[in-house]
Each structure stands twice: as structure tokens, then as C-alpha cells.
Structure prediction request, 344 residues.
Amino acid sequence: MILFLAPTISSTQISRIQDILQEHGFSGHPTEFDEQSVLVVVDPKSGCSPLDRSIQNTLFDLPGILKIAPIATSYPLVCRQIRTERSCIKTGSLNIGNGHFGIIAGPCTVESEQQVMETAIAVKKAGATGLRGGAFKPRTSPYAFQGLKEKGLQILAKAREETGLTIVTEALTPEEVPLVSEYADVIQIGTRNAQNYRLLETVGRIRKPVLLKRGFSCTLEEFLMSAEYILAGGNQQVILCERGIRTFETYTRFTLPLAIIPELQFKTHLPVVVDPSHATGRGDLVPAMGVAATAAGADGLLVEVHPNPKSALCDGQQSLTFSEFEEMVQLCQAVMPIVQRKIK
Ligand code: PEP
Ligand code: MN
Prediction:
């Protein structure tokens, strides 16, 4: 249940509403949604919030409540019913959601200025609207290359200056968020951090778009609850990213469950992008999965591209060359009109 509050409501009036909710065993969490003050009503035991009619009537008699949205899910701010329109995240050259298809491409990790510049120019020419590249890298081995850190962020910012492409890059810890958001346009939360709730709260407090990757062991419900953490902080600019889950299968790095695309489109207003690179771990499979994700109704793709995948410091085996990427984008563009999507 969501209570939409009048702009003129006082803090005493909000406290009064919270007290009444508490008397009935509910809690009211204040935040903002569509630039309006709201209280998310939650039953602390079940997470859901079915307020019965008599409590609703009591609340309606109080000053300051404009509307009660009778939504009873554990992710009320993320669920489809809260909005009539689907969300569209717009930042610089990147437009994702509500009919807009965004393609974010670039190397797994920022290695040098030349590597990033070359890639940025090539992917832009091919149709990408965002540039990705890790400066802070979450590596499985502590001995593997950990990224160029701030120097990497500076290179990405320079590539934006040169090409106008929106920059998407990862923050690994709450402490890194201020520095990363100084340079980046979209903050990526990686699969390993998808349930790092303090980090989710931190990006919930900023006012920049967040690309949230699905944890590779998270259920759809857990994925949406992670997104709810960010929206609960008042940041509604969340892009969901399916990047493959762990299964018993080994011929691909992870398993890409394409059915999640229409299921998420049914359950949430947030845009959904697919990362076929990490999902398959194989450059030869990436184009087919990118096209399939487009046909299944994704709002965008996140794809690893490298000037010379064989020499990449990270994830070369799943990175596309410039020409492979260009071919894939052309195929995706052929499919887009059928699913009412277009790159803007
Ligand atoms: C990445 O996109 O660079 C990355 C590390 O992805 P994931 O968190 O999905 O493994
Ligand atoms: Mn990678």
C-alpha cells in the first residue's frame, strides 16, 4: 500500500499517520515517488501491506493524504501497478525504456586511453548509445587486474567528451559511490553486489541512474526486492539487467533465462536490459542471444566489445570485435520495429 501525501503536509501530520499505522501493526516508510512525498506501508512480518477498509477510512479522514494506492506486494515502488506508463531512463545519449532501446557497449575493463577511445568511436558508429568500462573491477581472484580506479574513470570521462556517449561504470562499495558518480552518468551495481544492501541504500540516496545487475543466484523476487531498496531511498532511475544465473550447465559461463524479460515487463515498470556477454561467456554466442533478447522484449543490451579481444586484460573470450558488434546491432535493429522498440 502506498499513501500519496499532499505537498503541504507537515512532519507532525506524517508522524500522526505513522502512529496510526503502528497501532494497527504496520509501519510507514517515507520516501519520494514521481516527485511526490509518499509513505510505503508495510507489515513488518509479511512485507506485504493489505490495509483493511476501516484503516483506510481512518487514514482518509486525516489531513494530507491525497491518494491510497492499494498495492499489496513486497516491492510496491517497483511493481507495474504503481505507474500507468513504463519508466524511461534518460541520461545524455542514453534512452532506455518505454519504447526506447539503449545499447551500452565497451570493454570489460578500462585498460588505456587509446583502447577506450577507439572502442567508444567504433561502438558509437555502430549504434551504441552508452559506453561501458570497469574502472573498479570485482575480480574473483585477488591477484587479477583490479582496474585503473580513478585514472580509469578519467579516461571514461574523456571518452564522453570526445563522443558524447553516456558513461556506465561500476561502484563496488558504498565508499566508492561519491567518486564514481563524479565521473559516471550511470552507476552499475554488479552481480556480486546485487544483495549488498548498504550499497543499494547508498545508490538509493543519489540522484543518478543505477544499472542493477541480477545476482547470479538471486530469484526474480529477490532481484526486484534489491531494486526496491534503491527506490525506497528516493532514486527511481533504476535499469534492471539480466546477466545470467548459475545452473548445473557448463557449456556457457552462466545460463541466460530469456523468459525473465517478459516476466519482468509484466511485474515492473522499470526498464530491462540484457547482458549476453557475461551470461554466455562466449563471443560466438553473444550476437544470437543479443538478438533473442531484443525479440523477447528487452529495452536494451549491455555488450562487451574490445579492439582486440584476444589481448583483453579481462573477459576477452566473451568480447566482440568492432565488426561483430556492428553486425549484431544491425540484426537487433531489424527486430526492433516488430517489438515496438527504437534507438533514439
Ligand atoms: C561487468 O559488467 O563488468 C561485470 C563485472 O558484470 P557482472 O557483475 O554481471 O559479473
Ligand atoms: Mn566483464
User: Anything to note?
Assistant: Residues 113-126 form the longest helix (14 residues). Residues 174 and 199 are 5 Å apart (CA to CA). The pocket of manganese (II) ion (ligand 2) is lined by residues 108, 278, 304, 314-315 (CB under 6 Å). The first strand starts at residue 2 and ends at 5.
